[in-house]
């Protein structure tokens, strides 16, 4: 029997081993659970050396202190929770309170008991939270350490290293780099005037009013207003005013609005050259230096000085009435009208009439300027007189000092190119400083790089302004009273007879960039520190750190930055339209050049001899009607957009100058193509000679034209 039992066990030995192993494992697991639930792990007692090391670590690592505080708070919270659970368990063992009302008994509802959390699980939960908090704190500390390291690196950088980093940022943005101009460079000029050239294309005063708060926000301190024929002359001078000149009450309102925004006003009235708007008229032609040219006035005629004195009187008195005193809406506002600009630049025909030939050109100019300045100082002693400096550049130091012109006027030195010292050498600065106690300078934001440009080259104008900052810092110390400030000029025509150059709304991006740079003393590469972004209304906040690209990108061959094509500002619709028109005109110009000069079937020779392939002509003129219609649509769009800033005369001139000539060229091409397509038979070669061309070119031939 025993042998049978052992045989049975031997055959089932594997099953018995598995059962015994399971029982042993079950017993061990039960014992481990009983030990964990009945005992708590002893807390280690820190030694003196451990405490010292902990204190040293806390002093070295501020993040460790924060984690240690969080650990203490969590431990205290756990103790409070355990005490609350013990109270709940003790209260739950009591019998529920019974209330009687007659024969009805009411029992207070008992809340469901929550099983107390085992101490081991509570401790493990606390450890997990501590690990998470410690990891988060470690990440925050790492980020703060990186920021502190960067800030420390910036503080440790020398001035030269900061300048190098600044110039590197400028190069990435396409902003011109000028040595010495940067955050650690010289401060900005005291006076920053914005020139408004109103001759022949006057913006509506309602549009100019929109510019005033923006100009003030960008750092402008005043306006240099050149009226020419837009001033409302009265009396005997009434013919000098254009038919669309400003009304006197409208102009007063605008000047008072400029004063409310804290902007001074310096009127500019030409008194020697650039008097075409006066001398072109019947009744004033006898005052010309030369009968055939209305450019300059003859200073030797007594009537000339009488006319100029009347013009100065009307301009100055109007400004004194509405600017030289406090306005009713702002009775305590300090209003500045301190200077009158009398022009006197580019006097091209001087000393050529019979009376003026008896005197030197320099003597004629200086005596004329001093006479006008003496008239102003005698009647309005509070006003200073400013003139353009170009006529003084060729005069010697002795001539200038002998005339004492430095006691009468302040020169405004103007250069619109990037190389300022090419036109104003250091010797000339020294001469000016010995003659004049102070002076002004003039840069440009439009109207300086082409007589009929559509869009101003922003980068060139910005470089001109930045280089002027360097010149002001270097040469200002020569003058006894320093350089007063800078005028940012924006010419609308090169002279009275010239066509339009860049319109004021189209020049707004260039003005905003240059003005903000001059006002700050340098171009700020930080978008949060640049005043330009404070006046632009953008749908996004430019930030190079997010996009990886500079927030402003300028390029030598581009007229604008993408920033101004997506943001809003006064005149932004006109600027964006001008960019599209510029691209369209370039496209049509390339098309006309290709079909007329580069193709072999629609050239002038083909048209002149009426000899070409109809199939090729069809292909070449297929796009012409489409382009004509596109340009006509853009002309209608120009009328709608420009109406906000200009009257119908300026709008018509703009369309006639920029769009209509291209439409005419397309129509001529279409007509030439139609003529070529009408022919059905063609002559044998060689084609007949053109006698007129042979004669014009002086060619000799023994063959008579057919």
TrEMBL record:
<protein>
    <recommendedName>
        <fullName>Hexosaminidase D</fullName>
    </recommendedName>
</protein>
<keyword id="KW-1015">Disulfide bond</keyword>
<keyword id="KW-0732">Signal</keyword>
<comment type="subunit">
    <text>Homodimer; disulfide-linked.</text>
</comment>
<dbReference type="InterPro" id="IPR038901">
    <property type="entry name" value="HEXDC-like"/>
</dbReference>
<dbReference type="GO" id="GO:0015929">
    <property type="term" value="F:hexosaminidase activity"/>
</dbReference>
<dbReference type="InterPro" id="IPR017853">
    <property type="entry name" value="GH"/>
</dbReference>
<dbReference type="GO" id="GO:0005634">
    <property type="term" value="C:nucleus"/>
</dbReference>
<dbReference type="GO" id="GO:0005737">
    <property type="term" value="C:cytoplasm"/>
</dbReference>
<dbReference type="GO" id="GO:0031982">
    <property type="term" value="C:vesicle"/>
</dbReference>
<keyword id="KW-0963">Cytoplasm</keyword>
<keyword id="KW-0539">Nucleus</keyword>
<keyword id="KW-0378">Hydrolase</keyword>
<comment type="function">
    <text>Has hexosaminidase activity. Responsible for the cleavage of the monosaccharides N-acetylglucosamine (GlcNAc) and N-acetylgalactosamine (GalNAc) from cellular substrates. Has a preference for galactosaminide over glucosaminide substrates.</text>
</comment>
<keyword id="KW-0326">Glycosidase</keyword>
């Amino acid at each position: 029997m025993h042998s049978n039992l052992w045989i049975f066990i031997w055959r089932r030995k594997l099953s018995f081993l598995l059962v015994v192993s399971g029982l042993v494992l079950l017993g061990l697991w039960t014992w481990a659970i009983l030990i964990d639930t009945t005992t708590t792990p002893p807390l280690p007692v820190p030694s003196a050396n451990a405490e010292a090391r902990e204190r040293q670590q806390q002093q070295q690592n501020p993040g460790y202190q924060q984690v240690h505080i969080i650990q203490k708070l969590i431990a205290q919270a756990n103790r409070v929770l355990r005490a609350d659970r013990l109270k709940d368990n003790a209260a739950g063992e009591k019998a529920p309170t019974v209330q009687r009302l007659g024969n009805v008994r009411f029992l207070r509802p008992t809340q469901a008991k929550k099983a107390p959390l085992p101490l081991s699980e509570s401790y493990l939960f606390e450890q997990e939270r501590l690990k998470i908090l410690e990891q988060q704190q470690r990440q925050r500390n790492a980020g703060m350490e990186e920021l502190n390291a960067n800030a420390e690196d910036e503080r440790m950088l020398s001035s030269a290293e900061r300048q190098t980093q600044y110039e590197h940022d400028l190069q990435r943005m396409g902003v011109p780099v000028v040595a010495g101009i940067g955050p650690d460079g010289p401060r900005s000029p005291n006076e920053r005037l914005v020139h408004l050239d109103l001759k022949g294309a006057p913006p509506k005063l309602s549009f100019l009013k929109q510019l005033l708060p923006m100009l003030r926000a960008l750092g402008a301190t005043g306006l240099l207003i050149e009226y020419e024929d837009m001033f409302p002359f009265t009396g005997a001078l009434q013919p000098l005013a254009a038919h669309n000149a400003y009304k006197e009450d409208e102009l007063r309102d605008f000047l008072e609005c400029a004063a409310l925004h804290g902007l001074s006003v310096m009127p500019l009235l030409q008194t020697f050259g650039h008097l075409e708007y006066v001398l072109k008229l019947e009744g004033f032609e006898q005052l010309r230096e030369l009968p055939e040219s209305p450019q300059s006035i003859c200073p030797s005629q007594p009537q000339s000085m009488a006319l100029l004195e009347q013009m100065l009187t009307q301009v100055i008195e109007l400004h004194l009435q509405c600017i030289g005193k406090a306005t009713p809406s702002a009775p305590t506002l300090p209003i500045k009208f301190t200077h009158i600009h009398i022009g006197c630049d580019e006097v091209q025909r001087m000393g050529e009439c019979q009376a003026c030939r008896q005197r030197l050109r320099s003597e004629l100019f200086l005596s004329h300027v001093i006479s006008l300045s003496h008239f102003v100082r005698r009647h309005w002693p509070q006003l200073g007189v400013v003139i353009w400096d170009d006529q003084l550049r060729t005069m010697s130091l002795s001539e200038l000092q002998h005339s004492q012109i430095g006691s009468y006027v302040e020169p405004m030195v103007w250069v619109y190119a990037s190389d300022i010292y090419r036109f104003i050498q250091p010797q000339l600065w020294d001469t000016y400083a010995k003659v004049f106690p102070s002076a002004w300078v003039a840069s440009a934001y439009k109207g300086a790089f082409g007589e009929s440009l559509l869009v101003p080259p922003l980068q060139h104008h910005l470089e001109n302004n930045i280089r002027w900052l360097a010149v002001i810092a270097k040469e200002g110390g020569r003058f006894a009273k320093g350089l007063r400030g800078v005028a940012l000029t924006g010419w609308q025509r090169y002279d009275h007879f010239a066509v339009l150059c860049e319109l004021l709304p189209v020049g707004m991006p260039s003005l905003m960039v240059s003005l903000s740079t001059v006002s700050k003393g340098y171009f700020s590469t930080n978008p949060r520190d640049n005043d330009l972004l404070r006046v632009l209304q953008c749908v996004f906040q430019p930030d190079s750190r997010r996009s990886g690209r500079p927030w402003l990108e300028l390029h030598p061959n581009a007229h604008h930055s993408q920033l101004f094509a997506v943001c809003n500002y006064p005149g932004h619709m006109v600027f964006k339209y001008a960019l599209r028109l510029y691209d369209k005109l370039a496209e049509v110009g390339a098309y006309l050049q290709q079909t007329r000069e580069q193709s072999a079937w629609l050239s002038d020779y083909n048209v002149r001899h009426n000899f070409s392939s109809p199939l090729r002509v069809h292909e070449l003129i297929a796009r012409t009607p489409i382009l004509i219609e596109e340009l006509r649509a853009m002309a209608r769009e120009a009328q709608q957009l420009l109406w906000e800033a200009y009257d119908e005369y300026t709008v018509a001139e703009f369309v006639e100058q920029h769009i209509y000539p291209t439409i005419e060229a397309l129509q001529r091409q279409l007509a030439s193509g139609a003529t070529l397509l009408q022919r059905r038979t063609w002559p044998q070669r060689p084609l007949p000679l053109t006698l007129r061309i042979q004669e014009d070119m002086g060619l000799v031939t023994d063959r008579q034209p057919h």
